[in-house]
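Design job #97: recover the sequence.
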């Protein structure tokens, strides 16, 4: 699954940022992953949301040790979806920790060796990342029986107070995670705050809410409905899979703008998955 292009990306920067007292966002240059759970309440347990790139495991393990202590392990790994930049270290970490990996049941075929994603569409944008996207891994992985469907009642194992929301469009079984108490939204690739298709924007990480990364998105009508659904939650803090976290008024205003101008802001003018 390793690609030279991606190795280049993932060595540029790795950083982490505490966005609430119990959420640490780890940034692997092009993608984020989160440790969710309070370091001051270790007995309550914690979860890992998404797993970064193929070579992100070491950084994640260091962050875990620093935050929760040596040989601490999560109650669960939660995947927003199965794209390579979110599942990169899932095989290694789920094996090491011997923990279940939860995803939407429609996403399970991609992580249990049954189905491949379509090849990314490079024609959606003129940006360099879009042009490189056919080289991105899109083939199935197989984590076997560790892969489990998320509970039907909307609860999230290892994350009390959170619920998962089906937000299809980018992939068929894509989910977002929401906590009512402080209105925190972990949006995976349903939303992003960086123009992922262009390398310049990835590098400068300009803050502005956008739709899902274009080259991988397969259903734009569903993607639009999902964005509306997330707007209706009135989140106060957005943690996207790509880009910086955004809060408060900046979030509310830009999310509203994205809903109202979805076709202009988010949807590519052309592409294999764009209806004419
Ligand atoms: Zn994705
Ligand atoms: Zn992604």
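Job complete. Output follows.
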């Amino acid at each position: 699954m390793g690609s030279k292009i991606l190795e280049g990306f993932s060595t540029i920067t790795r950083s982490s940022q505490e966005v609430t007292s119990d959420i640490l966002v780890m940034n692997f240059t092009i993608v984020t992953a989160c440790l969710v759970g309070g370091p001051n309440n270790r007995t309550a347990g914690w979860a890992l949301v998404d797993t970064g790139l193929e070579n992100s495991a070491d950084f994640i393990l260091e962050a875990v040790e620093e935050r929760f202590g040596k040989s601490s392990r999560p109650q669960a790994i939660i995947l927003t979806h199965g794209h390579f930049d979110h599942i990169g270290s899932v095989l290694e970490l789920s094996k090491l920790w011997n923990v279940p990996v939860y995803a939407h049941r429609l996403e399970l075929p991609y992580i249990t060796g049954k189905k491949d994603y379509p090849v990314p569409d490079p024609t959606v944008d003129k940006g360099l990342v879009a042009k490189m996207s056919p080289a991105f891994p899109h083939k199935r992985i197989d984590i076997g029986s560790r892969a489990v469907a998320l509970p039907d009642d909307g609860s999230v194992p290892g994350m009390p107070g959170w619920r998962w929301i089906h937000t299809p469009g980018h992939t068929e079984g894509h989910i977002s995670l929401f906590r009512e108490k402080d209105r925190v939204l972990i949006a995976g690739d349903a939303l992003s705050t960086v123009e992922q298709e262009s390398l310049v924007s990835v590098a400068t990480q300009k803050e502005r809410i956008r739709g899902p990364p274009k080259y991988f998105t397969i259903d734009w009508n569903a993607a639009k409905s999902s964005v509306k659904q997330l707007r209706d939650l009135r989140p106060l803090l957005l943690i996207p899979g790509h880009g910086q976290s955004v809060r408060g008024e900046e979030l509310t205003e830009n999310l509203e703008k994205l809903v109202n101008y979805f076709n202009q802001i988010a949807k590519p003018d052309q592409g294999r998955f764009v209806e004419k």
